[in-house]
Amino acid sequence: MNLEALVDCLSSASCAVTQVSTGLIVGMLLFLVTSGLSLIFGVLGIINFTHGAFYMLGAYLAFTAYALSGSFLLAMVAGAAGVGLFGILFERFVMSRVYGRDILMQLLVCYAMILILDDGVKILYGGEYRMMGMPDVFALPPVEIAGGFVPGYYLFMVAVALAAGLVLWLGINRTRLGKIVRALAINPQMVGALGINTTLLYAGVFGLGSLLAGLAGALAAPIRTLTPGMGVSILIESFIVTVIGGMGSIAGAFLAALLIGFTRAFGAIGFPLFVDGLMFALMALVLVVKPSGLLGREAA
Amino acid sequence: MLRVEHLSKSFGGVRATKDVSIDFPAGSLTAIIGPNGAGKTTFFNLISGHVRPDEGRVLFDGADIVGLSSLEVVRRGMARAFQVAALFPSLTVREALTAAVVSHRRGSARVLSRFPVPEAVRRADAIMEMLGLGPKAEILSANLSHGDQKLLDIGLALAMEPKVLLLDEPTAGMGPEERWRMIGKVHDLWRATGMTVLFIEHDMDIVFRIAQAIHVLKYGAVLARGTPDEIRRNQDVIDAYLGTDHRLSETVGEA
Amino acid sequence: MRAGLVRDLAAALAGLGLLIALPMLFPQPALRDFLIYFFAYGLMAMSLNLLVGLTGLVSFGHAAYFATGAYAFGLLMQSGLVPIPVAALAAVGGTALIALVVGAICVRLKEIYFSFITLAFQMFIHSIIVTWVGLTGGDQGLRGGIPRPPFLGLDLNDARVLYATCAVVFVLCILAMRQVSQSPFGYTLRMIRDNPARANFLGVDVTAMKLGIFVFAASMASVGGLILALFVSGAYPEFAFWTTSGEAIFMIMLGGMKLFLGPLVGTLLLQTLNHFVTIYTEHHGLVLGTVILVIVLGLRRGLADFLFDAIQARRARRAAALAAAAPAAFAPAPLDGRTV
To answer: Where in the cell is the protein located (chain C) (predicted)?
Structure first.
């Protein structure tokens, strides 16, 4: 516990700016992962426990694409689209076979998939840490804001995450396809009866959710060390975000992801050993006080 | 025994129950009728603590039970059976009834004795006897016929030794002959136990034949009330309800 | 019913006799080691099935209690302040307390929420173990060995005494779980599994009952953990890692959750599989993952469940014959009303 350091940091503009920017990118990554998780749950009614592994897969795909092509843009596309495609295949060939069956079976296939992905990555890339490195495009001096220095890449990440969130929100709430997807969540039989291919939609939604996890992984690749099993902690954190924000609410996920991001960033200074504890305390508080989450509808 | 006063409930903008006041004297057999969507099941949900009313009181044995959980309401002596039989598919008839009896006797948390406890089995067997489920004792609830499932649902409610029994369409989904058998059993049960029984029913012949008092709901409000004879002659009821639904159900029933 | 209890006691005695006799007939130490692992993980799987199979609570965080049992026991023994039985009881009691707190938050949640919040709490406990290096040894695990001072004339440093003691504890725990599952409480849990709303309308305090079995199952898992800690003379963060919970779930599925001892069959199968996989390849995850996919998507149910379904079908036929008057209309309601 080091409250003095926390107060010091908060009262110094440069430290505060640095921590805010750290909190922002942690929050944005979490937001991307959680919105994918939430989207899949909202429409298909299942929790994709492999979501963390998809995040890892996105990071490694970006890593490989960048190493092969040297193009940052290609790395992002490979991470996001690659995982999106993988998600579709996973949904079609594995997940769809356990719909309507015991939750136990859904948990087991996800568990199996995580084991396979983690081990697969370990076989291909080795068990040690990997670094993708900062692309040349972003090899710029950090931007100075109120005495604090923020890497240009951070600003880029926040912009991409915000744009993705906005597109997702508009897509769901303002387009015809979004309307169909929302109807699918409530009454799949009816949507099927209208002659819409629900199988395709399910796969598409699962793919889109996976793509968001892959995008988050790709965005994280330049600033995080890559290791097999790196998906577990972000999966758990996105569970926490889901609970705090409220299942199925994109706005709630956004709010809660920021909350957790800042908790991590400032907690790391104030009580470095108790950051996880703080997040769990927040989650427990929400579960006790408002089980449906900050912005969730009655459901939990 | 049971009295509701000015009961109201809205869901969103829909007023499912509007200022309903009814008195159910001890030992009475009362039918609640009304066209589809009249708010009959909602009315039961409000009484049994499943849904909390926006306004009004539910007096059970003189005490207001609004705000009590369904668990507390059951423990005070009001049990209900459901429109779609709510059972325990993997338990046999005897196991389910025995477990219900155990629960009623506050034995659910006991870990040192063995299930089934003999005293509870005796009571369960008596209930099966009363409902004619004896020969089906060892059948899994999931494998019962529709009629037997409805009977078992009532049996589960009876295990609570209720003072007031709410039956939500005991004859739902049955053929004409089965309906009469079912309602005959309900009638026998009422006479044998002296409980206060409320039931929701669609079949007018049945209602007029066995109910002592009838309350007609329409759009969530009480449209009429009285003895079967009075209801039969009530012009409002005939216009609003019997005029269309009754003939329809008669022709369907006889087809 | 007295007869049931007597039968279970007899079965337990016979089982214990078999477990004691096995290492005498085949005196290789490897078998004894294998069986002690089997006791530890078997208790975890059996206790998890009290939640999954009996109550319908699919916990993905059960290994947390396995680990707290191991760590609490190990730490208490290392302190050198208490004899083994006291440390064991305190470890189980401490785990029960933790489970009470976590359970109080979790048991109100519906299905899938319950699964992932229990997993989240498990990873929290894992992160405490890894972070609190001063107490737990962090990544390296609880080092320095766990002392086994003799008590009541038993010297657990003798491998045979250790084995026999573990076997007795194991059988006693299985017997306790059997008693719970056959008690009125056990049948109340079956009601909750089948139809919690209806159970509530029959006067069952669903939340309290779920919490009760959650705490009991956690306590039983902690006994498994402390057996393992005692045997390997240490405790490791992997005990609390999510994969350990995943394996426990797979054990249940593999053995089947309808038969009381099914999870033990699963434990045996998975342990054998692990044993050979570890010998032939280092890609344990890849092989295990593939096996799980094949079994879940191919077989679709546990091995012991095949047996159970056969017994059930026979029982149903007999009952139907008894109820000659029963109408032929057979309208089985789906056992599992969940839809996607």
So the answer is: Cell membrane
Chain C residues within 8 A of B79 when measuring between CB atoms: 201-202
| A168 close to A31: Cβ distance less than 8 angstroms | no
Task: State mean pLDDT over B153-173.
Answer: 92
In this complex, the chains that touch A, judged by 3 or more CB pairs closer than 8 A, are C
Chain centroid to Cα C79, Å, comes to 28
What phi, psi does B161 have (nearest 5°)? 45, 60
- State which of A53-67, A184-198, B192-206, B221-235 shows the largest mean pLDDT: A53-67
Predicted pLDDT at C111: 77
Asked if pLDDT for residue B243 goes beyond 70, the answer is no
Q: Are residues B166 and B66 in the same domain?
A: yes
Q: Which residue among A118, A119, A236 sits closest to C120, beta carbon to beta carbon?
A: A236
Query: Residue B52 carries which side chain, given as an amino acid letter?
Result: R
For the residues B42-67, what does the mean pLDDT come to? 90
Shared-domain flag, residues B46 and B82 = yes
> Of B99, B119, B143, which one is at a domain's C-terminal end?
B143
pLDDT surpasses 80 at C287: yes
Query: Which of A230, A236, A260 to mutate to probe the C interface, most C CBs <10 Å?
Result: A236
CATH-assigned architecture of domain A3-132+154-289: Orthogonal Bundle (1.10)
Give CA–CA dist B100/B121, Å, rounded.
10
Q: How far apart are alpha carbons A235 and A33 in whole angstroms?
A: 8
How much is the pLDDT for A186? 82
Q: Give the range among A139-153, C25-39, C168-182, C220-234 with minimum mean pLDDT.
A: A139-153
User: Does residue B150 fall inside a structural domain?
Assistant: no
Asked if B76 and B112 sit in the same domain, the reply is: no
For residue C325, pLDDT over 70 is answered with no
Q: Which residue range(s) make up the domain with B41?
A: 2-86+157-254
Q: Are B99 and B92 in contact (CB under 8 A)?
A: no
Of residues A267, A249, A43, the one with CA closest to residue A165: A249
Give the three-state DSSP class for C326: coil
Whether C323 and B139 lie within 8 Å, measured CB to CB = yes
- Count of structural domains, chain B: 2
Phi, psi of B23 (to 5 degrees): -115, 130
Tell me if C202 sits within 8 A of B73, measured CB to CB: no
Position C337 pLDDT exceeds 80: no
> What's the rounded Cα separation, in Å, for the pair A96 and B34?
44
CB contact under 8 A, C204 and B95: no
ipTM for the complex shown: 0.86
Domain annotation covers residue B228? yes
Rounded distance, CA B195 to CA B77, Å? 10
Same structural domain, B24 and B74: yes
Work out whether strand B2-11 and strand A148-150 pair parallel, antiparallel, or are unpaired.
Answer: unpaired
Structural contact between residues C332 and C283, judged by C-beta atoms closer than 8 angstroms: no
- Average model confidence (pLDDT) across chain A: 88
Q: What is the mean pLDDT of chain C?
A: 88
Q: How confident is the model at residue C338 (pLDDT cuts 50, 70, 90)?
A: very low
- Beta carbons of A75 and A65 less than 8 angstroms apart: yes
